[in-house]
Amino acid sequence: MVDVRTDRSLAGLKATFMQFADTVFASEPLSRRLSLEVAESPALLALAAAAQAGQYPPYVLFAAVHYLLLADATEPLADYFPSLRSAPLAPDHAFPAFEEFCKGHEDELRDLVETRLVQTHDVGRSACLTPAFAYVAQLAANAPLHLIDIGASAGLNLLFDRYRLDYGRFVWGDAASPVRISCELRDGTDPSLDGWKPNVRHRIGIDLNPIDLTSESEARWLRALVRPDRQGSADLLAQAMSIAAQDPPKVLQGDATALLPGLLADVSRAEIPCVYQSYALEYFPEDSRQAFLQALDGFGAARDLYFIDMAGPGERGRLHLTSWQGGDRKVVQLAECPAHGQWLKWLV
Fold this sequence. Notes:
The chain is α/β, with parallel strands linked by helices. 37% of the residues lie in helices and 18% in strands.
């Protein structure tokens, strides 16, 4: 199978866009159709090839186009985007307009593709991460948590307890929150959230390029990363951004592998460090990923530590917890859940 992040040959890029059409975009009509058509266009594949090393070309190219359309929705291509029209045109005929748009904005698109990073911020993941936080709190006898979000983007998932989570069989969170996240509970056990009040002492994010929500262009890039067929996620994002703008979470700029040891060393003995990531580690170079995991092991050998790992392709996502308690390391799968948090199968 082609390495969708590193193979920038024409054949490799074509295979990447075809693969994304059949997997990531399979339930998104517009993105799927455009991905299939781009796969047959050497000019557009060459444009997508300008994405930075380690980035997924389909994500970056489509986000760059979406970014420009969000700034000028009068373009003919906007008529096909569910994010920009209440009654969009059928996606089967969108490619000629897409191709024309890319030709007319080639310089702007190339600059975006070359310089921007994939920083998709899916607030729906909070519905999967929150039960994991509660599980860690239970293991730690509800000692104060010190949360560290790896690849935090704008840090919106650090604000999980300012949202209302609706699992169908029960709800949890801030009843007055404008952010209402629905998550279907599938066969398994219900996560234990009844009566849980998070005891979080510190919340810190790390990102190579934190999103500044006060910047129109950066906030628009975050919005552009939500693909046009996923309007529900876009609405949640906008609502969460409005909450974060009132009291932005702390997100440090830098390489998580370099910053993590120092951040862990600064955690008070009275707090329990809980590091988590959702679909960020896959962007790390292999040596950085191994160094990151070694830093966790090194700290966990001396102090209690918890690492929540949300990863896995599409509908086959998984939520794992690695815990270090008294120097003993243990890994448990907490749940099955898709990348966008639409459902949760809790397993512990």
